Every structure is written in C-alpha cells, then in structure tokens.
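Re-run with default settings, no changes from the original entry. Doing this only to confirm the output is reproducible before filing.
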Amino acid sequence: MLALQQKTTARPGRSANERVQRRTPDHGQHADPAPERAGACACGGSCPRCQARSALTIGASGDAGERQADAAAEQVMRKPGRGHVPALAAAPGGSVTGGEPATPASVDAVLRSPGQALDGPTRDFFESGYGHDFSGVRVHADSAAAQSARQMDALAYTVGRDIVFDSGQLAPHTPEGRHLLAHELAHVVQQSAAGPAVARVQRRVRRENVTCQATGLTNPDLTGDEVVAALEAADTEAIGLAQVAEDALTTNLASVRGGAAPDAAFDTILQEELGLTLANPAHFPLVRQVAGRYRRVRETLESGYLRYMCRSGPTTKLVGCTAGDCVDTVAFTCPGNRLMVLCQAFWDEPGLRGLTLLHEPFHIWFDMAQHAPTALRRADALCYESFALRASGQVAAENCTAHTGG
C-alpha cells in the first residue's frame, strides 16, 4: 500500500586531536570558583564522546592557532566573499598546552546537549567567507553553556563542531558578536582539518539519479544544475538533522546507563515525539532501535542511493504501491522503492525540502504508512521528523504531542 506523505510545514564521537579552543575576555575577572576537574564518563568510557573527551586539550590564548583564527576572522569581516581567507592549518593535538587548567566537567555536560544550528543568513555569510560547510555546527548559548564558558574563563570556546558561548556573546547581528563568531568558526575549520570525528555531512545526490538533470524545471524556472544543487542542499540539511537526532539519543542513553539521571528537557522531547522515556529501563532497547533508524536514514542520504522524480504527473505508479498523486502533499515514496516523487509544493516551499528528504526514507525502510494522532509515535515518520527538529533546538510546527497511540 502506498506510504502517504503528510505535508510538512516547519523549517527549521570526536577525534583524538580535537582541542578546546577559546576566546578569552580582554578585561575583568570572573568570580566563579576554580574549574572542577572532569570526572569519569557516565558511560564508563565506551561511548564515542567520552573516548574523545579524554583526549581534549585546551588551546592557550596566545598560541599559533589562536593567532591564525584571529587573522582569518579579520579577513572574513573585512572582505566578505569566497576566496579571501588563507587555508587554516589543522589544530594540533597533544597534552594541555600553555599551562592551562584541566577541562572543566561542565564541558562534557554542554557537549551532550544538542545545541542549535546557525541561522540561514549567518551560515551563508560565513560559508561564503571561509569556503567551508558549516551545516553541522551547533551553537550552545543557554545558562549551562554560559556557566561552562565562565569556568573556562572564555567569552566562547570551540570543540569540534560545537561552539559554546557565555551569556550574551552569541550575537551574530552585532559587529562584536559577528567577529567573535568568525573567530570560533575559524577553530571549527582548524579542527575539521585535524581529522573528523563526527561523520562529515556529505552532499551525495547523484546527478544521474535526478530525472530532470538534463532539462531542468519550469515553475520554478531552474536549470538542471540548479535542481541538483537544490537537492544537494536539502540532502545536507536532512543528514545534519538525522545526525543530531542519532547523537542525542546515543549520548543520552549512554549517560543514563552510566548512572546519571535523565536530562529533563531531552526526556520531555523523547516522550512527546516518540513515546519513550529514559526513566524506564524497559525503553532502552527501543531508544537504541530509534537511534539505529536515524543512522539508517542518514547513511541512505549519504550514499547517493535515492532517485528523484522531479515532478509527478496527475498520478504516478511506483512499483509495489498503488498509484499516488500530489494532492496536499510535498512528496511520496513506496516501501522498498528508492524513487522519491517530488510534488509542486516541494519546489514552491524551499523550507520544506530538507525535512522532506529526512522524512521519506522512514517510509522507504520502515513501512510507516500512517500519519494520524492514533498512530504509534515511533511508527509515524512525522514523529521522527519533529523529534529531529526539536533535538536540534528548532521548533516543530507539526509535531506528535497530541498522539494517543503511545
């Protein structure tokens, strides 16, 4: 039976050589106590984040990496546009440098939280300036992040793809805030050059798998290259959302299994969107199953396996399903069939494209054919979409909080 597509409306482990790189205040002293030394990983040391955490080092405020980040930030702010910034060298690894204190335990806690993606205009500005993909960057600016930054005696610090800010320092629409973010994003580039620990977001839409790659589209008027680029951008967004959801599930489960109490905010999202709770050990296998489903979807999007029909006719018959149409829908697929049929709404509403590419593989691989309040949450593709959005710090305009099916 055809897996009907519910129209969506919302848009929304680390390597051994990663360092904690920070931007320190120019004046004043914080009254916070000396940083607490990090304790043992809650998972016992087996999870990717904890294994990476043991190798984190702190960059001294005047070292070569900091000077290089300063220079890159100055160039990006002075001459925005691709090609102005020199190549950034990999951030070195090794032991704590410059006599800096041990990394505070609060770093671990903040890095376990999902953070938020950069807003579109800010990301576009800095991707153009650095010539680097920042889709995987997550910023942390809540009260826990602020406390962690103060314990690091930093306005902000960067670990891999995560940037943590003191209170009021994430301000990309002010000159000072934009410059600070430019500096921290330079560290993201440095650390990615040092060796990726988190799977890098890949744009893996194969041109030959797009039906209109030679002819393009009308309404909207897009060349074949522009169609492929639009699908690549949507693919990248979907991969990023799936990765955040997978990471959040894996790290929170590991933390609770290690003896920590469930994170209240995360567990609320987990209950409301997927009907599960880390307060119940009987749900642990189901949480692992859900994380595995996000991984399967992410790997599918990264592999280039999917094919795309750019626009449906009045009806389209997919092998294994009855004929479908585009009435009140963005796209549709059929379980076990790798062809995704794109509808006019997909092209009319760019903000839905990434969510659609995240959503549809759940139909393909897991035969989730029902979108209804009575559906089991973890059997409804819409619930996986809304969980991923909320786990990444975004608002899910359509969500599963009203589901009654468990």
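The longest strand covers residues 337-342. Confidence is low (pLDDT under 50) at residues 1-19, 26-55, 92-102, 196-203.
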